[in-house]
Specification:
By secondary structure, the chain is mostly helical. The chain is 67% helix and 0% strand. It is built from ten helices and no strands. The chain is elongated. The chain starts with a helix and ends with a helix.
Length: 155
């Protein structure tokens, strides 16, 4: 709890840098890793920080994966982000919180992400979580703000 409070306090005082927060991403305590992701959102456009956040989508803690996916909503969209969202969707579609995080971050990736999940369905049985995620991604892809030409270029 002390390390979490220290990160939040230093963030409030604007005394954090990626070099200071980076080691917290490897902390043994999941709540410290989660907080490090949250306070580090200001650096999401920096490639080295973004790479670290992308790695956290594979964390053993669902809470850390959840925060990593939400933090990535602030990152530029590219093929690497798309691939990580597919991985999280495959792994965590049955978790409603992580499913919502993927939907939140998917934005213009909704159509290609949906396509990848449906392609997976041809090879293996799908869970109810994947069905729910596919329904939400379909609605997001069909929304007027969605740009399928831009998102298809990512794949």
């Amino acid at each position: 709890a002390t390390r979490v409070h220290a990160l939040r306090l230093l963030s409030r005082w604007e005394r954090l840098t990626p070099e200071v927060v980076g080691p917290a991403l490897a902390d043994p305590a999941a709540e410290v890793r989660e907080t490090a992701l949250l306070v580090g959102e200001r650096w999401m456009h920096e490639p080295s920080w973004r790479t670290r956040v992308l790695a956290q989508t594979q964390d053993e803690s669902a809470r850390v994966r959840f925060q990593a996916v939400l933090s990535l909503a602030l990152a530029p969209v590219d093929a690497e982000l798309a691939e990580r969202l597919v991985e999280v969707a495959r792994r965590d579609a049955d978790d409603p919180w992580l499913r919502d995080a993927v939907i939140t971050t998917a934005r213009e990736l909704a159509a290609p992400l949906l396509g990848r999940l449906l392609a997976d369905a041809e090879d293996q049985p799908i869970s109810l979580g994947v069905v729910a995620l596919a329904r939400e991604l379909s609605a997001l892809a069909a929304a007027p703000h969605s740009d399928p030409l831009r998102s298809s270029a990512v794949w």
